[in-house]
From TrEMBL:
Subcellular location field: Mitochondrion inner membrane
Major localisation: mitochondrion
PANTHER family linked: NADH DEHYDROGENASE [UBIQUINONE] 1 ALPHA SUBCOMPLEX SUBUNIT 6, NADH-UBIQUINONE OXIDOREDUCTASE B14 SUBUNIT
CDD domains, alphabetized: Complex1_LYR_NDUFA6_LYRM6
Name recorded for this polypeptide: NADH:ubiquinone oxidoreductase B14 subunit
Signal peptide: none
Swiss-Prot/TrEMBL keywords: Electron transport, Membrane, Mitochondrion, Mitochondrion inner membrane, Respiratory chain, Transport, Ubiquinone
C-alpha cells in the first residue's frame, strides 16, 4: 500500500480504462456550485461560466494518450480541486487563474487607459525647469 493511499488520496492503479478522466470531470462539475458559493463568485460569473472554463481546461489535454500522463493530470487536478474545496486558495486566485478571460469576454471591456492627475503628469513628464539651489 502506497503512502498516498494510506492518507486517503485516490491514486489510479491501472490507468483510465474505466473512464477515470470522465468521472473526474463530473466530480469537478458537481463541486463547482459549492466553490462558487464559498468564494462568492456568483457576483461576477455563473455556474455555467465556471463549468465552461472547466470544460476548456479538460479539452486542452484531449489529445493526450499516454496513460501515465493522464494519471498524472488527474492526480494534479484532484490536488487543485482539493485546494479550492478546502479554501486554501482565495477568491482572487480563482479569478486570476481561471475566470479572468471569461469575465473580460462577458463584459466586453478592455483595460482602460490610466487617468493621471496634473501632478502625476508633471512628475512622469519630468521637471523641465532646473532646480533652484541655495
Amino acid at each position: 500500500m502506497s503512502t498516498l493511499s494510506r492518507i486517503g488520496l485516490k491514486v489510479p492503479q491501472q490507468g483510465l480504462f474505466g473512464g477515470e478522466a470522465r468521472k473526474f470531470y463530473y466530480e469537478v462539475c458537481r463541486c463547482v456550485p459549492f466553490i462558487q458559493k464559498a468564494m462568492k463568485l456568483d457576483e461576477i460569473v455563473s455556474v455555467r461560466d465556471i463549468r465552461s472554463v472547466v470544460k476548456e481546461k479538460f479539452k486542452e489535454y484531449k489529445d493526450v494518450k499516454d496513460q501515465r500522463v493522464i494519471d498524472l493530470l488527474i492526480f494534479k487536478g484532484r490536488q487543485e480541486l482539493e485546494t479550492y474545496l478546502t479554501l486554501h486558495k482565495n477568491r482572487h486566485h480563482a479569478i486570476t487563474e481561471y475566470l479572468d478571460p471569461i469575465i473580460r469576454r462577458n463584459k466586453g471591456h478592455t483595460l482602460p487607459a490610466p487617468q493621471h492627475s496634473a501632478f502625476m503628469e508633471s512628475f512622469l513628464g519630468g521637471n523641465s525647469a532646473a532646480p533652484t539651489g541655495k
